[in-house]
Structure formats: C-alpha cells, structure tokens
Specification:
globular, alpha/beta, 15 strands, six-stranded parallel β-sheet, binds nicotinamide-adenine-dinucleotide, Dihydrodipicolinate Reductase, domain 2, nine-stranded mixed β-sheet
C-alpha cells in the first residue's frame, strides 16, 4: 500500500524529510507547500517531488492522504488539529504544541477521527535512548529511579542565523522562544527509554543578561527572558527526572546536543559530549563507540545551503552501531539522514503506521508526555519555581 503526503514548510528542516518521504516505497507522491513559494519550488527541483500546492488550506482541500507539518515551532498545534479534522494523517515536527489546551485538542481530534498522528521526536532514536531502551526492557538497570536529559545548544552555534532565516526582519521577537517550550529532545530521550511520565515539576529559569534584544521581555513575542532553565520532575513511578534546556552555554553542541543519564538500582548510564559509559556495581564499560553516528552526507551538500554552518553536523549525522538498520527500507541505504540517525526511523515509523493503520511509537498520548511537562515547567519558572501538577492524558489506546 502507498499514500500521498504534503509537506507544509520547506525551510531548513522540511526539505530533508520531503526527500525521505519521496524515497520511501510506502509513499506514492510528495507535494510541498510554503508561504514562501520560492522555497517550495527549490525543494521540488532539488528532490524531484510531485509538485506544490498554493496554500495550507488548498492542501487540506486536496485529496492527499497525509500532511507533515514543518512550520515554526510555536505554530504546530492549530495546524495539526485542522489537518486531522480535514481527514489527513499527520506527522508533526516537535514540539507537539505550546499549551495544554492545544495538546488536549489534538488528542481529542485523534480520538474522534482515528487518523494517525505522530510527533517526529528525534531523540526517540538517539543512540543513547535506543541503548537505554534495550537495557531497560531487558531489566539490566534494576529499578530506574533517577534520570537526566539535557538539550544543550548555545544560541551562538547557529541559532542566530536560523532565527534570522526563519523570522525575517522581526526575528528577534521569535528568537526568544522559551527553552522549556522546546523540551522534547531532553524529556523524549528519557521517557522514550523508560516509559514513565511526569506528574509534578519545579523549575528555575535563568534570566538572560546579554542585552542584545534576544531574550528581552519587551521584544519577545513570548514575553520571555529566560535563556536557560532547569526542571526537576516527579515521575508517576516515584522516580525523579532532571531536565536542562540551555541556550547560553559554553558547550560544543555540534558534537552532541542531547545528553542523557539513567541511574538504576543495578546499573547506570552516563554521557558527556564524547564519552558514554555503562556502569554496574563492579565496573565501568566504555560504550562510546556504539553511540558514534557516522556522517550520512557531506557538510557541503547543496541541500544544506539554507542551514547555518554550525547546525550542519546535526543535519548530516547518520546511523550509529547501536541502531537496527535492518528494519529500514532498502531505498534509505546511503540516503541523507540526520540528528544521530533518527530521520530514517521517524519517516519509516510514520509510513508504516499510516499504511497499517497502527499507532506509531510517538503517538499523540506519548507526544503529550514528552511535551506538556516542559510547558508546565516554564509556568513553574515564571512563578519562581513553584511546584506544579502536570496533567496526564493517559496511555494510548490499544489501537487507532
Ligand atoms: N531535531 C529536531 O527534531 C528538529 C530540528 C530542527 C527543526 N525542527 C523543527 O522543525 C520545524 C521547522 O524548522 P525549520 O528550522 O525548518 O524552520 P524554518 O523557519 O526554516 O521553516 C519553516 C517554513 O515554514 C513555512 N511556513 C510557516 N507557516 C506556514 C504555513 N501556514 N503554510 C505554509 N508554509 C508555512 C515558512 O515560510 C518556512 O519556510 C520547527 O518546528 C522545528 O522545531 C526539529
């Protein structure tokens, strides 16, 4: 079986996925739409896609079966809901949404329409998460009682360029996007391995002091001046998860921007930029090599022309030894990948879910557990670290 898909937003990220959807044998045709038509035209030419559609509304009115949302990070919720209600299966880049209400509306729309929804959380296939997921499933940790997930990416390492490309002249209004509203690479990497969920949080935000108009409350469309934030979550199984979202930090994010730690009663996993170890009560095992992503294309590839040089490492990083590449379609062999090999798996997950009418791993209920804790953490930081309860939407149903 095959289906057609329309990719909405072909800026720095969407084109890479349009290409992979086009390569996948489970997809018949790939269309693109962008508010800037020249970006759509460029993607069509570069990747040999089926064509473009004039607007998001026209795409919803068309007979495409699925829609993939790659618009700016604060815009996803309402677009996703409209696409589901227009009868489309939906792939969404992270985050799921930026408010509890938007998340609730997406879950309701999935429940009512029974269309496939998937959030493309790259950390779900981060080598560290893949490894920890296997170890946890095999019971090797014992009881996991403490975890850490960090998304550590300094604004100077490509984000100024990315926001200018994305936001045009008024880019400073959007570059202040609150760090805890982009929590999924940290939280999703932990809960993607140990499937618990957060029930309460206390978060402290660090107010920015660079005074360059970014993270300035008077300029910010989010009224935000936190550039770093740290949250401590209580989990439903009595464990603890700590999350760092850092945008002003002396750290080489191009080497590894998401890092994880898992502490169990029998064994633990710890990760730094270039080192990863597995430890039991007797010894330390260096597993760094299993985590090493191989580049999937050149940093000079023309498809990366719109991507800031400092961000390109993430866009080319491919499979690591820990990945199970056997499950991927033959057509992906040698194809561009990204974010530590995750792009191939995410595209394959969505295509498989749509063609088989099954729930993908990061379905709406899981996506809510990866996203809402950050939204509540940001609110906690605004209230000086007050401990707040996090709503849970429950486990996903057994089938669509
Ligand atoms: N590791 C990851 O998972 C990861 C990495 C990078 C980006 N992302 C996500 O991917 C998304 C896209 O990021 P990006 O860097 O490509 O952004 P971008 O700003 O470069 O591109 C967004 C594009 O969407 C278009 N657009 C916006 N609203 C539209 C609409 N209603 N109809 C048609 N086109 C519309 C814009 O014109 C623009 O070209 C973001 O949500 C971001 O969070 C995720």
């Amino acid at each position: 079986m095959t289906f057609s898909i329309g990719v909405v937003g072909v800026g720095q990220f969407g084109g890479q996925f349009a290409h992979l959807f086009n390569l996948h044998p489970g997809v018949s045709k790939v269309y693109v739409v962008d508010e800037r038509p020249e970006r759509a035209a460029e993607a069509i030419e570069h990747y040999g896609l089926a064509g473009s559609v004039a607007s998001f509304e026209d795409l919803l009115a068309s007979d495409v079966d699925a829609v993939a949302i790659f618009t700016q990070r604060w815009t996803h919720g309402p677009l996703v809901e409209r696409a589901l209600r227009a009868g489309k299966h939906v792939y969404s880049a992270v985050p799921m949404a930026i408010s509890e209400e938007e998340i609730a509306r997406i879950i309701e729309a999935v429940r009512e329409t029974r269309n496939v929804y998937m959030m493309g959380e790259t950390s779900y296939y981060n080598p560290a998460t893949v490894y920890a997921r296997k170890q946890h499933a095999a019971g090797k940790f014992g009881r996991v009682f403490y975890t850490e997930g960090d998304y550590v990416h300094d604004m100077d390492l490509g984000f100024y360029d990315a926001y200018q490309y994305s936001g045009g002249e008024r880019w400073k209004e959007t570059a202040s996007y609150p760090p805890m509203l982009y929590p999924t690479h940290a939280i999703g990497g932990v809960l993607g391995a140990v499937p618990t969920h957060a029930v309460s949080v206390s978060c402290v935000g660090v107010r920015d002091d660079r005074q360059d108009g970014v993270f300035d409350r008077d300029v910010s469309m989010f009224g935000n001046d936190f550039s770093n934030a740290t949250a401590l979550f209580e989990l439903n199984d009595g464990g603890v998860m700590r999350t760092n979202e850092m945008r002003r930090v002396g750290y080489p994010s191009h080497i590894r921007e998401s890092r994880f730690r898992f502490f169990g009663t029998e064994a633990s996993f710890e990760q730094l930029a270039k080192v990863t170890v597995w430890q039991d009560k007797a010894n330390v095992h260096d597993i760094s090599e299993q985590m090493e992503s191989r580049p999937s294309m050149s940093l000079d590839d023309p498809s990366l022309a719109n991507v800031a040089p400092e961000l390109r490492d993430a866009f080319v990083s491919g499979l690591a030894p820990v990945h199970d590449s056997e499950r991927l379609p033959e057509e992906f062999r040698g194809a561009p990948n990204g974010h530590e090999g995750s792009h191939h798996f995410l595209v394959d997950d969505f295509v498989t879910a749509v063609n088989n009418r099954t729930l993908p791993a990061v379905n709406a209920w899981t996506a809510a557990r990866f996203t809402l804790p950050g939204i509540v953490a940001h609110e906690s930081a605004l209230r000086g670290g007050e401990r707040l309860i996090i709503r849970d939407f429950g486990d996903a149903p057994a089938s669509l």
